[in-house]
Amino acid sequence: YSAHRLVLRATLLTAALSALLIAWTTSFVPLLLLTVLLACCLAAIPSLLDSYAVTISERSGLSYGQFRVWGTIGFIVGVWFVGWQMGQHISHFFLLAYTATLLITCGATFGLPPLRRSSTQPMWECVSEILHDRSVTLVLLTSFLVIGNATMMGSYFGIYLTEIGGSIRLVGTAAVLAAVSEVPIMLFGRRFIERFSSRKILIFAVAMYTIRLLLYSLPPAAAWVVWVQLLHGMSFGLYLMASVTLVHQLAGRERAATAQGLLSSSSQGFGAITGALIGGVLLDQMGAVGIMRVASVGMFVALAICLWGGQIVMARRAATNSVLKPSQEQR
Known about the structure:
CATH superfamily of the largest domain: MFS general substrate transporter like domains
Number of helices: 12
Structural class: mainly alpha
Radius of gyration: 21 Å
Distance between the termini: 41 Å
Order of helices and strands: HHHHHHHHHHHH
Number of domains: 2
């Protein structure tokens, strides 16, 4: 069924209701259940929005990054506004603001155009065909490892920064600098992808992530770590653009939404959950600096798989082309 807008609206409304109820929940079990429900919704929303962004960018001639940059700008404005309103005191305001933005987003979906006609294949058959493509499988595995290690870093970055002597204000500054570094990447990243290909940009992004985590694992002075956050654009920003674009190219337009769902599930779903769980276990045993060291090793593994997988896929395609070429010449 081609019901992307309906599913997106239902997911946004469910997420908004979950966030609102969390603000007034005082018992652990209901809080846990609502948090799980919210997490399930948030795992689905990015894939649906990315599918729209890629499809509309093809229609309009704009790049995916030129759409995605508004998410970065929204994050910067949202963090500043909520921080300004709350000041030094933590309150329910951030959950209420989050609920309001989800409802506004839901209202904005009524202006979205319909996506292209969806595939006539049954869903599981479509998923099976996508997963049988080794190129897509390698991208999904790489995304799982990248986001898993990135979540291990990001979930405990505030603790890490305070552990090496940083202040709460410095944590906020680091978050803003990371978001700002995304803006030029989102605006001009298409030129890099068109020149070097999305696969090569993905490899470069994972390499930058590895360098970034290695710098965190030293660890340097807290003030210097903040400036390392400027690598966020060349790591996460380029990774996001390259992975979304590459999966879309490999899966094709008819299966684009399903492919984006698999990408989101493997990265923001399974990858993020795995990274957060492993990081939580390591925090008690090794501290936040130890988490950064483990994450840097994990990201290096992701880089090795990305490079190895790329060579395998290129070799298979070269072999296929060499077989097809003589048959075409005989015709």
